[in-house]
């Protein structure tokens, strides 16, 4: 897949701007706070329907304006596709090939991308929320079933949590089994997809990590939790777990078991990476996960996603920088940096210089 162009209107610090991308390496350069990351963020938003940097879409709107509009055209193995998103204060509108879609599942996955920035260290060093978000964003791009199950699971989970806050405990205990049955159906679907994804991701991430570290470190991945193999059996187990946790959930006021609490185990040379690895090790491990994610997309979708590398090369030492550039040479890559000549070692690329929210032509 190749993104041909990107148009931004009142998006972040951009008033009106258009970008043209080439199939290989595209380098967005310029001083800090000029809009490089904002451009990369727009590409990722059109691929996933969300941003890794914000909690509310209204934060994407340029200050002093009523709404933002982003659009892109890409060439995929199925032909040309155009995606648009209009973001307003309290709503958004999504379009695929000019047709408005109401479900995120119909928007996500028409273009695929993998995003990596220094902030992705959170994947390794922070709590389970970051690793679950990684799984959710990645799997949703290649599975509409997962995206739909995740949306419905979250909706039922919110309703169950609201019920747990009711003061009439008799009514709550009478009603909870109904919600638990529904929640378990979608939870089992989520667990099944995550297991399949991690089974593919683990060996690919291990190989990428060995490549980046010249075999000096071994990366391990696994699900933190045990579930049966069969989806119906997973649902039955979750119903039992929810029933066992009801009294505790009533005290806490929220649902304490389910895939929204699961985690990924990440080890480096057999040691738990969270809290024990260095900054450099965490950075390389997170980058390995992203490279493996790229390979999975290639296998599942039959084409490579757009790889977005936001201010990454400056954070790597020279050998790993060179290895990364070698690794991505056959992928469309959007890379941001302050000084292209200092990090690219003469690599052929499409250079785009950005100054104060404008392309310097």
What do you see in this structure?
The protein has 361 residues and is α/β, with parallel strands linked by helices. The protein has 2 domains: 169 residues, Rossmann fold (3-Layer(aba) Sandwich), CATH 3.40.50.300; 166 residues, Up-down Bundle (Glutathione S-transferase Yfyf (Class Pi), Chain A, domain 2). The chain has 11 helices and 15 strands. The strands form 3 sheets. Strands 2-1-4-5-6-7 form a 6-stranded antiparallel sheet. A 6-stranded mixed sheet has the order 8-12-13-3-14-15, sandwiched between helices. Strands 9-10-11 form a 3-stranded antiparallel sheet. A hairpin with a 2-residue loop joins strand 10 and strand 11.
Annotation keywords:
361 residues, alpha/beta, Rossmann fold, 24% strand
Output the number of helix runs.
11
**How far apart are the first and last residues' alpha carbons, in Å?**
26 Å
If you consult CATH, what is the topology of the largest domain?
Rossmann fold
Question: What does the radius of gyration come to?
Answer: 22 Å
Large-scale geometry: globular
Order of helices and strands: EEEHEEEEHEHHHHEHHEEHEHEHEE
Number of strands: 15
CATH architecture label of the largest domain:
3-Layer(aba) Sandwich
CATH superfamily of the largest domain: P-loop containing nucleotide triphosphate hydrolases
Quaternary structure state of the chains depicted: single chain
Average of per-residue pLDDT values = 93
Strand order of the largest sheet: 2-1-4-5-6-7
* CATH class division of the largest domain: Alpha Beta
Task: Count up the domains.
Answer: 2
Describe the biggest sheet? 6 strands, antiparallel
How much beta, percentage-wise?
A: 15-25%
């Amino acid at each position: 897949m190749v993104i041909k162009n990107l148009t931004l209107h009142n998006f972040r610090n951009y008033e009106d701007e258009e970008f043209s991308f080439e199939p290989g390496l595209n380098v967005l350069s310029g001083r800090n706070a000029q809009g490089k990351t904002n451009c990369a963020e727009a590409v990722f938003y059109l691929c996933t329907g969300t941003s890794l940097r914000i909690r509310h879409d209204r934060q994407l709107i340029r200050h002093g304006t009523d709404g933002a509009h982003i659009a892109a055209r890409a060439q995929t193995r199925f032909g040309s596709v155009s995606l648009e998103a209009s973001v307003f204060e309290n709503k958004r509108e999504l379009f695929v090939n000019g047709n408005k879609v109401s479900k995120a599942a119909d928007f996500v996955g028409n273009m695929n991308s993998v995003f990596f920035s220094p902030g992705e260290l959170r994947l390794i060093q922070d709590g389970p929320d970051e690793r679950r978000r990684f799984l959710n964003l990645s799997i949703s791009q290649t599975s509409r079933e997962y995206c739909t199950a995740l949306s419905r699971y979250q909706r039922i989970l919110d309703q169950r949590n609201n019920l747990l806050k009711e003061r009439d405990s008799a009514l709550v205990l009478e009603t909870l089994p109904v919600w638990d049955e529904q929640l378990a159906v979608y939870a089992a679907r989520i667990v099944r997809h995550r297991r399949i994804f991690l089974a593919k991701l683990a060996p690919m991430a291990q190989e990428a990590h060995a490549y980046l570290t010249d075999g000096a470190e071994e990366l391990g991945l696994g699900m933190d939790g045990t579930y049966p193999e069969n989806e119906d059996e997973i649902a039955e187990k979750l119903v039992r777990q929810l029933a066992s946790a009801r009294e505790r959930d009533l005290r806490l006021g929220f649902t304490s078991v389910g895939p929204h609490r699961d985690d990924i185990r990440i080890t480096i040379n057999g040691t738990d990476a969270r809290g024990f690895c260095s900054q450099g090790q965490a950075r390389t491990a997170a980058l390995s996960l992203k490279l493996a994610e790229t390979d999975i997309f290639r296998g599942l979708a039959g084409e490579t996603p757009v790889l977005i590398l936001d201010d990454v090369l400056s954070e790597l030492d020279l050998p790993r920088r060179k290895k990364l550039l070698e690794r991505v040479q056959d992928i469309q890559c959007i890379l941001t940096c302050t000084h292209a000549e200092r990090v690219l070692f003469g690599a052929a690329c499409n250079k785009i210089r950005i100054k104060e929210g404008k392309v310097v032509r």
